[in-house]
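The instructor's notes for this session suggest beginning with a concrete chain rather than abstract definitions. Hand out the sequence below and ask the class to guess, before any prediction is shown, which regions might be ordered.
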Amino acid sequence: MLNGKLLKDAIISASIAIDNKKTEIDELNIFPVPDGDTGYNMRMTLENGIKHARSNKHLGEYLNELSHGMLLGARGNSGVI
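After discussion, reveal the predicted structure:
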C-alpha cells in the first residue's frame, strides 16, 4: 500500500534521476530562449519539496507538504509547471 514514506523514497529517486540526466533535460528547453537550466530548476524544485515534507504514513499529509514546499521553492518556469 502506498503511503507517505514510500512516496518520499520514490520522489527522492526521481530527483536523483533528474540530476543524472540534467544535461539532456537542459537541452530540451528552447522556448522562449534556450537558457540551459531546466534540469537544475526541476531538481531544485523537487529538493525543496522533499526538504519541506516530513516522511509520514499518511499519504495525503505528505503530498500536501510536498506540494507546498515545491511551490514555495520552485525555480524557473519548469519548476513551477
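Then share the key points. Residues 4-20 form the longest helix (17 residues). The helical segments are 4-20, 22-28, 38-52, 59-72, 76-80.
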